[in-house]
Amino acid sequence: MDDYAILVVEDNPDDQILTMRALRSASRTNPIIMLEDGQEALDFLFGTDTCERSEQVESVGVVLLDFKLPRVSGLDVLRRIRSSPTTDWLPVVMVTSSDEPQELREAYRLGANSFVTKQIDYSKFSEQMSLLARYWLTVNKLPVMGASRSFQKGGAGE
Fold it and tell me: d(Cα 60, Cα 155) in Å, to the nearest integer?
């Protein structure tokens, strides 16, 4: 796998541990950045009035974003990611324990690249995380870091 980082935004401590364990077994070389809520994700991705965005943003290859997060919801984080030219190209996988059709539709409407319902069984969950890591970090091709999708489309003569 390339050295892209996996950004995980997950508030549940048990799910954090299981996700880290599953991703580590799938990819020992890719850094994993774990954040605990939507506001922390926005601060990491975009910075704040008193703090610049993290330099690690340029290394992120995929965001695994919990749907229901404290402070700022996963959908609001997704909306912000898609509205910024610095992150609108970034693959975002919505990860949730819910199986609500309205949530699925809203996530795709806002630009999610994938929607995954967490498996309850750990071995199935681990396989699910392994498949996600492999696909998004090795099979999927990312644009040049920092480039936006709209720039890529416009720059390609479209």
Answer: 23
